[in-house]
From TrEMBL:
Official protein name in the record: pyruvate kinase
Pyruvate kinase C-terminal domain span: 336-434
EC number: 2.7.1.40
PANTHER family according to UniProt: PYRUVATE KINASE (PTHR11817)
InterPro entries for the chain: Pyr_Knase (IPR001697), Pyrv/PenolPyrv_kinase-like_dom (IPR015813), Pyrv_kinase-like_dom_sf (IPR040442), Pyrv_Knase-like_insert_dom_sf (IPR011037), Pyrv_Knase_brl (IPR015793), Pyrv_Knase_C (IPR015795), Pyrv_Knase_C_sf (IPR036918), Pyrv_Knase_insert_dom_sf (IPR015806)
Pathway linked to the protein: Carbohydrate degradation; glycolysis; pyruvate from D-glyceraldehyde 3-phosphate: step 5/5
Length: 450
């Protein structure tokens, strides 16, 4: 039972009933719907298709956010030259009364994934002049990044708002927020989608990285979105930033996902490069809950094989990883019972930990303690069960909770035995609430199957 979860992006190569089912069989736990490549009109159909083909997997709706793109015609920018543009030429809208939206003299503007670098020398109204530090041929539609600018105003476009409404109304498990800068960006999304949907902050700007602890504190999860992060920060600093994101999430007990170009060569190749294998292994060693595939499964040559390769790398890497319990060290009270259960499971070499919880909260706490074995989470809710799919090592099962503690434990153990998870001679740790079904876990049992 692999601990690290796999998130797969759906696209033309995989967004079909058979394609989705083949990805689940290969090892996908959560499907990502990228709103940068899906219209608001097509989003409900995609969600319904995933629900039909894979009713037990989670769905993440990744909203587009304020992606800036160069709008005028293509042109050649010569190093050392000066050029003038309007804010709207770079996709920067000033209609909200924010003027330059935070852009100031001396700020860098990067274009075409950082290949072209310019610096703002003057701003007059909605027009500004740039000095070209590193030139090149700039094609229309290429991306624009503002690494030094904390963009003022809302990070949400009208399309984002419409996509969030669809995600909320159709009850997806996760929404991922692009270009987060401050904790308030996450809070504003939560006010829109409600408390039942998990809100993940994509860390892809230096402003977010500088506030990673504060952002984790208000988020259900964070994503190391290394694409734009590698443009807006020096690319050599990305591995350290990735580790910082994972460590902050571990300490605060929120989910973490490592994303972007993890097996990029498998978009066109049948096997990953050795560097990609090392990259995925590094993410496992950093302690991420999940690793994500993007183009590999959305438009790749063989999406299922990319997932199988990812699964094999994760499983092999996990053999050599023993995670410290950062969460319990930072939160000794909240983790008192789950940390003890995790420690007991390690000492006894338990096959798995059986967590019985109405909301899944105890199972998430358990996952935050990074036990060395899987967690089988018993919850009566399909919605809560699907949300748990993104947590490291958690394998959710749906079963109505008996109010009687002994009956609840007996039924849960029987279910794991009936489906082949528990066999004669296996030893497991059971963690549940004896006081009341809705209380936090307060009891630990060691069970050996006769």
């Amino acid at each position: 039972m692999r601990l690290t979860k796999i998130v797969a992006t759906l696209g033309p190569a995989s967004l079909s009933f058979d394609g989705i089912q083949s990805l689940v069989a290969a090892g996908v736990s959560v499907f990502r719907l990228n709103c940068s490549h899906l219209s608001t009109q097509d989003l409900p159909k995609a969600i319904s298709l995933v629900r039909e083909a894979a009713p037990h997997t989670g769905i993440m709706v990744d909203i587009q956010g304020p992606k800036l793109r160069f709008a005028p015609m293509s042109l050649d920018l010569e190093t050392g030259s000066n050029v003038s543009f309007k804010l709207s030429d770079l996709g920067i809208e000033s209609s909200q009364g924010d003027g330059s939206r935070g852009l100031a003299i001396g700020h860098r503007i990067l274009m075409d994934d950082g290949r072209i670098e310019t610096v703002v020398e003057d701003i007059t109204g909605n027009e500004f002049s740039l000095r070209v530090v590193r030139g090149g041929y700039l094609q229309q539609g290429k991306g624009v990044n503002l690494p030094d600018t904390e963009v003022r105003g809302s990070v949400l476009s009208q399309k984002d708002l419409d996509d969030l409404t669809v995600a909320r109304d159709l009850g997806v498990e996760i929404v991922a927020v692009s270009f987060v800068q401050t904790p308030n960006d996450v809070i504003s999304i939560r006010e829109l989608v409600g408390e039942d949907i998990m809100v993940f902050a994509k860390i892809e700007r230096p402003q977010a990285l500088a506030r990673i602890d504060e952002i984790c504190a208000v988020s259900d999860g964070v994503m190391a979105a290394r694409g734009d992060l590698g443009v807006e920060t020096p690319y050599e600093s990305v591995p350290d930033a990735q580790s910082r994101i994972a460590l902050s999430a571990l300490r605060q007990g929120v989910v973490s996902i490592c994303a972007t170009e993890m097996l990029e060569s498998m978009t066109t190749s049948s096997r990953p490069t050795r560097a990609e294998v090392a990259d995925v292994s590094g993410a496992v060693r950093d302690g991420f809950d999940a690793v994500m595939l993007s183009g590999e499964t959305a438009v790749g040559l063989n999406p299922s094989e990319a997932v199988r390769a990812m699964a094999r790398i994760c499983q092999e890497s996990e053999k050599h990883v023993s995670m410290p319990n950062y969460f319990a060290d930072e939160n000794p009270g909240a983790a008192a019972v789950t940390a003890a259960a995790s420690a007991l499971a390690k000492r006894t070499s338990a096959k798995f930990i059986l967590s019985i919880s109405l909301s899944g909260f105890s199972a998430r706490l358990m996952a935050s303690c990074r036990p060395s074995c899987p967690i089988v989470a018993i919850t009566p809710s399909d919605d809560r069960s699907r949300q748990l799919n993104v947590n490291r090592g958690v394998y959710p099962l749906v079963l109505e909770r008996d109010r009687n503690f002994t009956s609840a434990v007996t039924s849960a153990i029987k279910l794991t035995k009936d489906i082949g998870m528990l066999q004669s001679g296996d030893e497991i740790v059971v963690c549940a609430s004896r006081l009341h079904p809705r209380s936090d876990a307060d009891t630990i049992l060691l069970h050996r199957e006769p």
